[in-house]
Amino acid sequence: MGTKRTDEFRADAVRIALTSGLTRKQVASDLGIGISTLNKWVTAHRDTDVVSKEDLDLARENERLRRENRILKEEREILKKATQFFAGQKP
Questions:
Q1: What is the pTM of this model?
Q2: At residue 64, what are phi and psi to the nearest 5 degrees?
């Protein structure tokens, strides 16, 4: 039988799962719990105040910034390739 976790541990696990930007699988692995256990905790705590509005806002902003950063990196790579292509051509 598994280890009994405290309510505080469960609340922290839910907060991390919802705001860290990591996958639930990664969070569960890092915390040493099963993914199904974490999913049950998240479902059970979804309507509670485990995660503050500020935490959710920060998580959304982080996700937006990660997406923007990924797009900018892709654009930079395209510009590098275009520069190399045009630098190799003679007028």
A1: 0.56
A2: -60, -45
